[in-house]
Write a structure and sequence with these properties.
Structural class: alpha+beta
Number of helices: 8
Largest sheet: 5 strands, mixed
CATH architecture: 2-Layer Sandwich
Order of helices and strands: HHEHEHEHEEEEHEEHH
Number of strands: 9
Radius of gyration: 18 Å
Number of domains: 1
Strand order of the largest sheet: 1-2-5-4-3
Shape: globular
Oligomer: single chain
CATH class: Alpha Beta
CATH topology: Beta Polymerase, domain 2
Strand content: 15-25%
Distance between the termini: 67 Å
Amino acid sequence: MIREHAQSTARGASGYDRAVQASVFDEIGMFRAIEESGARALLIGRQALIALGMPVMTADYDFWLAADDAGRFNDALRPFDLLPSRPPDEARANGRYVLDNDEHLDVLVAASVSTVDGVMVHFVEVWARRTYVEIGDGVRAAIPSIDDLILTKRFGARPRDADDIRWLQQLKARTS
């Protein structure tokens, strides 16, 4: 009985199962909301590489925030039904959290992070050297400088991070 009720209420007038239909995600709108929020948010990870024109793929977004801007960042993304996995105070204590629905954002909120070889990378310094990339419709995203983006790729020791570092080094050589 409960299962039948759940199935019947999950179906809309069209008869399609709403539970398996993806929402319409407005990527430009998301970046606009972040930019307008005033949160100090850096796009890192493979989405930053994609924004720089590199031929890589990823299914999620990675951001590094000033720790005291987590609430502002979350508020900006609430209209997109991106829900935080923990409140800002808990996120700051843990150093990271996730915003999720059918999109996935990994969020780093640590003031400093160590690379795999022990180099401390400080958010305030990376933020000071940030650059901007045009996402579309006059909307920009803040990203680390190429050297700092390379450092963020050294937070982990995954094989794809090594590949990404090689792409970034090639880009740096072409633009220097």
